[in-house]
Design goal:
Strand content of chain B: 15-25%
Shape of chain A: elongated
Largest sheet of chain A: 4 strands, mixed
Number of domains of chain B: 2
Number of strands of chain A: 4
Order of helices and strands of chain A: HEEHHEHEHHHHHHHHHH
Helix content of chain B: 40-55%
Structural class of chain B: alpha/beta
Number of domains of chain A: 2
Strand order of the largest sheet of chain B: 6-7-8-3-9-10
Radius of gyration of chain A: 36 Å
Distance between the termini of chain A: 81 Å
CATH class of the largest domain in chain B: Alpha Beta
Low-confidence stretches of chain A: 1-8
Number of strands of chain B: 10
Strand order of the largest sheet of chain A: 1-2-3-4
Distance between the termini of chain B: 20 Å
Mean pLDDT of chain B: 82
Shape of chain B: globular
CATH topology of the largest domain in chain B: Rossmann fold
Largest interface: A-B, 29 and 39 residues
Mean pLDDT of chain A: 87
Oligomer: heterodimer
Order of helices and strands of chain B: EEEHEEHEHHHEHEHEEHHHH
Radius of gyration of chain B: 19 Å
Number of helices of chain B: 11
Strand content of chain A: 5-15%
Number of helices of chain A: 14
Low-confidence stretches of chain B: 256-267
Chain lengths: ~375, ~270
Amino acid sequence: MGDINNSLKNQPLLETIKQDDGLFQIRLSGDWTLNNLVAMPELIKGIKQSVNNNSSKWDLSSINILDTASALLLWQAWGQKTPANLDIKPEHLRLFALWPKQALPDMETPGFSVQSILTYLSGELTSATSQLLTFITILGQLLLDTGHLLRYPRDVPWSEISITIYDAGVRALGITALVGFLIGIVLSYLSALQLKLFGAEIYIIDILGLSVIRELGPLLAAILVAGRSGSAMTAQIGIMRVTEELDALSAMGISHSLRLVLPKVIALTVSLPLLSVWTSVAALIGGMFSAQNTLDISYQQFLLKLPDAVPLLNVFIGLGKSAVFGLMIALIACHFGFRIKPNTESLGNETTNSVVAAITVVIMVDAVFAILFMDVGMP
Amino acid sequence: MSEPFAIRLEHIWTSFGDKVVHKDISLALPKGEILGLVGASGCGKTVLLREIIGLQIPNKGEIFVMGESLKTLSSSHGKRLRNHCGVLFQKGALFSVLNVFENIAFPLRELGIKDEEFIKRLVFMNLENVGLLAKDAWLKPADLSGGMTKRVALARTLILEPSLLLLDEPTSGLDPISSQDFVDLLSSLHRDLKFTVILVTHDLDILRDLCTQIAVLADQQLVAFGTLANVLACKHPFVQRYFHNQRAQRVFSYQAQPRTQQGQLNG
């Protein structure tokens, strides 16, 4: 590694020599580059000390390399001027001539004031209004597109729909099954502990069946899909903005909503109910497994009792809810995707916003369904 | 200085799967030269540049930057070496979350410099050097035109005054005026700072006006390396097509004034 020291690092040196006349001569030599100086802070201290000592003569003629930044450091240390008695190579002198005539613009420092708060609030309000407007625009455009497709069924983007069903639905089968199965086990195990106290073990089937089919299955699937596919959809549209693919589509006269939004909305509206059934089944299997181990309720008994415990209507409520969840997740994902500006910060922010908004809306819609169907489907 | 060469490539072989990109490329570039790396699109110029930066490792062969082998470099020496190399990427690669000022100040802050006045003076000096106005400092990269992006990226690259400058197609996408400004800027900086430059380009004017050395990549090999006159004399079919087509002949015959400057540069 000796070579790097020779080729890159010709050490800068500061020597103080006492002359015969009693005055000091400060001699600088070597490579005075910013990289070297940062590694040797004692040099800058040495310079400042020498300035304070009122040293008479500065000899910079032995400096091998002097870069602009080091010249600035020296000039600042000298008190923003060059010393009267200075010995320097002519090509280095030019570096000190730059600074005195430099006019520095004022830095923008946003102060704290009532006006800044008002500006911030009005900005937030405008942003919220524009969000609402663009969301309504997407929704309206979607309705128009649906009308268009009903008139011209040839234009239905089948391949995009099928790709999205595969990506958001088929590829989510593993994770939804795993999460459903584990939640089923946990729910069954915890309920079993309580039911045993009352000797009401058989009601585990009612508890599991109703909560899983009506609530947990659709909700779990929706939350997983919002995190998994919602974020992906937002990021995909955002990257398409960054790489100008959105503009390319527009230039070819292809509607964004028809080719990008609609397939995602249809695909999620179709695949989320299916995924929710799949998650419910996995959760029930987990619950059955746990019930057999903790309460000695056999699989056969569980399956025979299930239709009595849970009226069929609950399955349809679950399916309907899931379809709405899918619709909302896709719409929100696309809405935030189109809001992404071509920079990395915006991409991250809007993807986060998309997932948070999707999960919140899913839970809100779920609450609305719970209120609307309060008396429907109970055994 | 013990090492007379800024860059030494020794028997570089690179391949991606079955596709061979570089077959036994060797080259030694003395310090202070401006090397133009040319070749057909997709012939591995950018890959070679990335290998010199250390972003990619060749399958075989060794690369020496300022006398240091990239293979045996420890991370601390590597960091030190990188501070001596400035890289200008094709699209500027500005940090989109930072404004122009913070982009240019980034290398200084990374060195641990805290003195705000020092940073401010140096950043505005560099902005002026690359021909930008002080008010441009508060713009975000997304608001910049292609030419401005390149200028800001160059200012960021130059702020630590690297001894080796690597430029990937610096004038692509620039209008002829900006492109000429860029050439003038680079040659005046080169006169002052005496750095070594390697630039990948398709711009014949740059080869004529700026480069002191030219390397031609074709058929996965280095087919010509030397001054423009040497390369023009090369008989390789690719060189013949690239440097002796009608357009190139027009460019290289229109050379009365720049050519004499070139002669001086060549020494």
